[in-house]
Structures are given as structure tokens and as C-alpha cells.
Amino acid sequence: MITMIVHLRVAPANAAAFETLMTHVAEMTREHEPGVAYYAWSKSVDEADTYVVVEVYADAEVHAAHMASSWVRESLPRSAALIDGLPHIRQYVSDGSAPVQRSIASA
């Protein structure tokens, strides 16, 4: 399994648009990607501008298919315009899984 934990900052003025976008991506992922074990976003209780996205993939091929999906390709430039700075991405692997190569820089 490959787990991605992504922390993002979103200005209050962009929060509603960001949440709508991420809800769409999460719904499409859960509906159309059986190899994705978990995909969800949450908003911090303590820091109103901070969000986390948790993604769990069966393997690197499932992650690659997720990144190639139309909803992810369409959402990336939109989400980049809504967040402040770069996403803080951490990747974790288990069960002997090889890590995926990331194309988005992490702060």
C-alpha cells in the first residue's frame, strides 16, 4: 500500500471552491477507482486555513491511473490556483510497496 498525506493552506476566500472541488475528486475517485483503498479530505479544527488529503493506493500502478484520470488532471490546475504556497506531501509505503515518483514539489 502507498499512502499520501497532503497538507494544504487555503485562503478563506477560496475555501468553498476548494471544498467543492475536493468533494468532486473524492467522489469520482471512490466511484471509479477500485484500487484506491481510501481517499478523503478534512479541514483542521485548530487552523481554519489548513486542510489535509489522505490517499491510500494499492500500488504505484493504481496511483498512476489516479493521476491520469480526467477528474484529477482537470482538478490539479484548479486546486493550485486555490491554495496558498505548495502542498506539503508525505508518502508512506507498506507491504513491500515501492514508492511512487512525484511530479509536484513539496514544501
UniProtKB/TrEMBL annotation:
Residues 2-92 form the ABM domain. Keywords: Monooxygenase, Oxidoreductase. The keyword NADP does not apply. InterPro entries: ABM_dom, AI-2_Isomerase_LsrG, Dimeric_a/b-barrel. Its EC number is 1.-.-.-. GO terms for molecular function: monooxygenase activity. Pfam families: ABM. It comes from the Bacteria. It is an enzyme of class 1 (oxidoreductase). This is Quinol monooxygenase.
